[in-house]
Write a structure and sequence with these properties.
Number of helices of chain B: 8
Number of domains of chain A: 1
Mean pLDDT of chain A: 95
Shape of chain B: globular
Order of helices and strands of chain A: EHHHHEHHHH
CATH architecture of chain A: Alpha Horseshoe
Number of domains of chain B: 2
Number of strands of chain A: 2
CATH topology of the largest domain in chain B: Rossmann fold
Shape of chain A: globular
CATH superfamily of chain A: DhaL domain
Structural class of chain B: alpha/beta
Low-confidence stretches of chain A: 201-205
CATH class of chain A: Mainly Alpha
Oligomer: heterotetramer
Bound molecules: adenosine-5'-diphosphate, magnesium ion
Largest interface: B-C, 58 and 58 residues
Largest sheet of chain A: 2 strands, antiparallel
Strand content of chain A: under 5%
Chain lengths: 205, 328, 328, 205
């Protein structure tokens, strides 16, 4: 079972991964967007880490809704509301339970991802974060590792796509040949699940 | 770059605005620029905002006759809902608030969240989307046309009507009318260097240009060998007129992206005027300058807005902001 | 560059000004920009001019409350006497004409020749030299200090007094007073590319800056590794205050050289204000923007001008020009 | 003796030399000035050539005063009034004579150069056009070739000088190490005397 501390670790590991990869995310965004995705998420997850340090949310759900609120209040851009909604909706779906199973997380994350799809109006194949998140949710039924690999594969698979949502869509054909920055950061978020599980010494989420 | 560190660019800019403009209320902590006299009794509040790096848009357009408040985000990043909610609360006199939102996914999502929250707090909110950039195909397979130069026309004209005490519905309607009557096209002669990235967002050799750029340093639709000012005017005005066929007089904005000398912008205006007159479009008013910019990008955009007598009257109405000032 | 061919840049710019500003008389052939209502009965005429490439200076400052006429030369090249003589004749109501001349050998020689010729034609001419740039040692072994940002203060304040109907002697005296009370210092973050040359006038690697530059793309006195906005403000304001020790309130111009984003200029203004307040200098008014530019140069300058009540009143007086507009 | 046609050829040869060397003059001016000296003189001498084509000044003096007036009306900058004054004063000193001797030209040019010194307030060694013109006037007593060589040597000798007049003076020590553009163009003007003499088939001015 995944306890509150696991979810804190998930967020901290995501923040660390975003810090590490911020320049790469920004460079990806420079190619088909506006060169701010890395700094956007860095600002957001720094705020998440600070909030988790200051407040002590008591449940997995509370950790994620707090994190989601922080992202909405500090990121801005397209990714702020989208990632904020992802975490808030996932957190809300987890309810008040003090511990949740991997299956419950997979289901809740599915609701979160559906909310992202609804808010942004994007579908699979539109070259957005959904292209990493949707396969990750499917694979999370198996394991965190499988989810991570699915997210990475999904992100890599955005390279040949023509963007239909977000800034990259302005480029038309010129959006082809670049990885979507949001898909790349989603792979970091999902990959952090593995690190969070590893850090507890346990055998995966 | 003339900065301290990338992280404080927006806050530093607001501190500098506060120092230069005692006639405005600048809330550096909450990232708000407000008319000093807000809320004005009975007046609809006009709130806009968006990523920073487009100055004077939007903060430079706050004041009597134009915006009630502006919410500056990080560089090229939509502001967050908290800012817009605070702005709405600060400028609402009970007559309601119009959000002027440039059509970018980030701006739309954040302003929508803010609208929901503000309405929960009892503020009546309407929203107008600005989407004038003809370089982007407006279809369900894109995020839709971008909001660029027309924003200035929407904010000026809706602001004038709001100052006359018109209802939220009427202010919203005129804002929509202006947006529907306006189209833009932009060209880059150099890429942008954002403080956070520190190097140009794309690589543009000096003998080439990008056609159909936005205002966020994104590349355009097409790259070409350098064209003359006259050729660029032909291309841009024809692109605009493909989408907008004005039957009457128009307002023209010949806008610099930030690093193009004013002398060159005026020269470009001469060519824009030539093309418009070749196409039989009469020009009622022209504004030339750096108004909707993209940091240090060299380049320009043209916005054409068809006006009737009422819109022209509202355009000519007095305005007192840092960047646009006339009448009284 | 957004141009047709280098040879027509100035003429194209004037055609574009004519199209955008029906409230001015733009004589493209003779290279003159005039107040439409010139000569104004009983009013002293104010004529300035200089090389082009510094826009909005000077043509953007023509209008009620400021210049009567501007004579634009070729890029970075003083205009010729013929222009100034025609301008003087066009704006003289019999009350005489004041030439506002930036202190460059070329401007001085051409305006002096013009003054002689205009006087032969019966126009009473006085001349004020603007020489505010503290980066240049003012000695008999140099051409003397350059005229830069203070030109705006001189033209605005003398223009306001002229509009009140003051005599040529009084307008000249106030212009001299403003110049004597003002000092500037400028910094370049990039070199200039003139249309004729087509490549940067000097080589400035992106991690370095030039301190003490003028407005003609000439290198400065010293090159240094890049400094922060705060460090530049310290350096520039201290350089200014070494030469000018204001005992009372000052006007501040935080001026962009053309390609520096307005957001960065506002951030720089915050630092300038900090330094001035550390030095105990109270600021009465601040103007931030691209006013005295150097084509596409990135960088900025600071001008500080000590004012008494009368100068402040004249600064605040209404002005209606393309680039400066307030009051009525 | 030098007739009116010689003076026309002098001006045309100067215009051709300026056209040929415009980029070099502008580059010299870019180093210590404002990168316009070449285009300034090109504009001016194009106007001179056009005026000489349109009008038919009857005397050597009239050719030079017409040329000087054209320079003043079309060049601007520092060099317009200075070169304009040089040619006008030289022309005036030549009076109404239909032909003049080399000696008379040398004397008249001396007056022109003195007028330049008075107008601009510069002295020998200040790193200006005077550093080419003053030695040229001296040497013109000998021959046009000697004048040309003296002007060239004078221009070259400006390289190590610290500028005391004109824009280059703003640079202080940094003006050292560059040839003065006005001295370089003065060497072209003086060198054109040799061409004008050669073109008539005669043996020098
Ligand atoms: N409508 C959308 N639905 C889902 N994801 C989207 C949508 N629009 C943009 N995104 C994601 O957001 C990412 C860009 O985020 P970011 O650069 O932070 O915001 P912005 O585009 O406002 O600068 C894109 O790479 C994409 O994955
Ligand atoms: N006071 C002066 N006396 C003599 N020659 C001068 C003086 N000032 C400048 N010059 C000459 O003029 C040249 C510059 O001419 P130009 O570049 O055409 O004008 P500007 O300096 O106005 O751009 C200098 O190289 C110098 O030889
Ligand atoms: Mg982005
Ligand atoms: Mg962004
Ligand atoms: Mg010059
Ligand atoms: Mg020069």
């Amino acid at each position: 079972m995944l306890d509150t501390d696991f979810f804190r670790r998930w967020m901290t590991a995501t923040a660390a991964a975003v810090d590490r990869e911020a320049d790469r995310l920004t460079d990806l965004d420079a190619a088909i967007g506006d060169a701010d995705h890395g700094t956007n998420l860095q600002r957001g997850f720094t705020a998440v880490t600070a909030a988790l340090g200051g407040e002590s949310p008591a449940t997995p759900g509370a950790v994620l809704t707090l994190a989601g609120r922080q992202l909405i209040s500090t990121v801005g851009g397209a990714s702020g509301p989208l990632y904020g909604t992802l975490l808030r909706r996932t957190g809300r779906a987890l309810g008040e339970a003090p511990e949740v199973s991997t299956g419950q997380l997979a289901e809740a994350l599915g609701e979160g991802v559906a909310a992202v799809a609804q808010l942004g109006g994007a579908q699979a194949g539109d070259k957005t974060m959904l292209d990493a998140l949707l396969p990750a949710v499917q694979a999370l039924g198996t394991s965190a590792e499988a989810a991570r690999d699915a997210a990475l594969a999904g992100a890599a698979a955005t390279v040949p796509l023509l963007a239909r949502k977000g800034r990259a869509s302005y480029l038309g054909e010129r959006s082809i040949g670049h990885e979507d920055p949001g898909a790349a950061s989603s792979a970091l978020l999902v990959g952090a699940l593995v690190e969070a599980a590893g850090a507890s010494g346990g055998g995966g989420a | 770059m003339l900065i301290n560190v990338p992280e404080t660019v927006v806050a530093d800019g607001l501190r500098g605005m506060a120092a230069a403009h005692p006639e405005l209320t600048v809330d550096v902590e909450n990232r708000l620029v407000l008319r000093r006299d807000a809320p004005v009794a009975g007046k609809v509040g006009l709130v806009s905002g968006g990523g920073s790096g487009h100055e004077p848009l939007h903060a430079g357009f706050v004041g009597p006759g134009m915006l009630s408040a502006a919410c500056p985000g990080e560089i090229f990043t939509s502001p967050v809902p908290d800012q817009m909610v605070k702005a709405a609360a600060a400028v609402d006199s009970g007559a309601g608030v119009l959000f002027v939102v440039k059509n970018y996914t980030g701006d739309v999502l954040n302003f929508d969240m803010a609208a929901e929250l503000a309405e929960e707090e009892g503020v009546r909110v309407a929203r107008v989307l600005v989407d004038d950039d003809v370089a982007v195909t407006d279809s369900t397979f894109t995020a839709g046309r971008r909001g660029t130069g027309a924003t200035l026309f929407v904010e000026k004209i809706a602001g004038a009507l709001a100052d006359e005490g018109a209802s939220l519905e009427r202010v919203e309607a005129v804002a929509r009318q202006v947006n529907a009557s306006a189209r833009s096209f932009g060209v880059a002669l150099s890429a942008v260097t954002t403080p956070a990235k520190g190097s140009p967002t794309f690589d543009l050799p000096s003998g080439e240009l990008e056609l159909g750029i936005g205002i966020h340093g994104e590349p355009g639709r097409e790259r070409r060998p350098m064209m003359t000012s006259g050729e660029i005017a032909d291309f841009a005005v024809h692109a605009v007129l493909e989408d907008l066929r004005p039957s009457g007089p128009v307002l023209v904005l010949v806008n610099g992206m930030g690093a193009t000398p004013l002398l060159e912008l005026y020269g470009f205006n001469a060519e824009v005027r030539r093309v418009l007159s070749e196409r039989g479009v009469p020009v009622a008013r022209t504004l030339v300058g750096n108004y909707v910019t993209s940091l240090d990008m060299a380049g320009c955009s043209v916005t054409v807005c068809q006006v009737d007598e009422e819109l022209l009257r509202l355009w000519d109405a007095p305005v007192q902001t840092p960047a646009l000032r006339w009448g009284r």
